[in-house]
Write a structure and sequence with these properties.
Order of helices and strands: HHHHHHHHHHHHHHHHHHHHH
CATH superfamily of the largest domain: MFS general substrate transporter like domains
Strand content: under 5%
Helix content: over 70%
Shape: globular
CATH class of the largest domain: Mainly Alpha
Radius of gyration: 25 Å
Number of domains: 3
Structural class: mainly alpha
Distance between the termini: 18 Å
Length: about 525
Amino acid sequence: MTDLPSVSGTVPERETLKPYVGLFGVMIGSMASTLSTRVTVFGLADLRGALGAGFDEGAWITTAVGIGQLVGGLSCPYLASLVGPRRMLLAGIAVFFTASLLAPLSPSLPAYLAAQLLASLGAGTFIPLTIIFIIRHVPSRLKIYGFAIFAMNAEFSQNVAASLEGFYADHWSWRWIHWQYCLVLPVMFACVRYGMPEDDVSDGSGIRNLDWPALLYAWLGFGLLYAGFDQGNRLDWTGSGIVAGLLLGGLLGLTAFIVRELTAVRPAIDLRILARGYLLLFFFLLIGFRFVILATGYIIPVYLQVVQNYRGLEVGSVLVWIAIPQLVLVLPLAKLLQTFDPRWTLGAGSALIGIACLIATGLTDQWATDDFLASQAIQAVGQSFALTSLVVLIARSITPTEAVAIGTFVQMSRMFGGEMGTAFMQTLVRTREQIHSNLLGLHVQAQDGLTVDRLFAYGRAASSRLSDVSEAAAQSTRLLANAVARQASVLAYIDGFMAAAAVAAICWILSAFVPRSPAR
């Protein structure tokens, strides 16, 4: 594979441009894959309303998206070896496009969930196959730029999701949550078809040697675990037979999958790669970073919506400050990683993420958009450093033949790390809010002077709008209760930022044990 000529004024040959066109195509897919999960989360209320679904029924929408992406990613190693990465990616684009086009036209919630599951199956192949493309087909001197763009792309798309959903809800229609992909997927299809090398035709041995039981165990194990994590907070974890059954079934399926793959002659997904201890450490770090990123990505929007009554576009104006620095840093960071050991930037990024979370613990009920800028800008730089360095370290530690399995492990780590972060933070915030509400309530005594003064102030404000004295008194009591609940929520969010800072500190410590991995 030749590189772009450096002679000024010359026009690159047609063949030389192919890997760059292909890279552009797979980056579109990487962004669309991440957007499909985050936009759905931010648009869940609009989707429930449009589909006439209640809170409990609508909660399964995000679960369907996550399970589809997991199953799609798990299928990559086998299908890519059977039909080739190019054919598989083109098929995934076609499935994602068709399901996204039809999903808003679904006549019922079950039909919509089926369309979401199909769309996510297609999108789930994008990130593993993006990694495969960069490792195998991007010129060697530019691989590090490809990985830097990939790391930036995945996090950038997640942080612009709130702005996109808010714009669609306010100006267009909820249907564009899905139809937005129909605008870019044809471009992706054309780029991949032109820029990705043709696949070798399979001789049919792949079908005969397929380890179907292992794939089935993997689909059931990871799918049930993801559903259990996604529904756990809503159904109160072990207090729900459904969640307990999902988690138990998932653990059994996962155990069967691991045992099968470690003993099979031709494993569907080669887990033996993880015997290289540093690779396992890399994936633990990836899970940890995704945990922190999705945890803070949950706290800030919920705080703005619950405490400040922000809408989607207003929430997006805060999160976009994580996205913008990543665009600026992507190319200089890639150049920096060509000079410095990525382990140093990995440690620096981990530290910056922790510092950003600690800054955010200064949260009060008066914080608005501008108050988050300092912490979010620092977190953006930290995420760029940490994730890009980690992806580069992973890529330097594997051979091109291992790219398929590694791409799947990356997809699994990011999906489960993010889901665990969100599930943990939902439960932590809910329980800590209850504790803080109870503790604050103990200090609100009916005969206390401060309580009387606060009730009097609320009553005077209410009486200016209400003529009935008893109704004004009841309104003042409600206002006091709301103030207590507001403060309890803020204290719970502070606890959440402290927990995220603790996980970032663990990642920082683990980064010190990353060895200088050999280039393969």
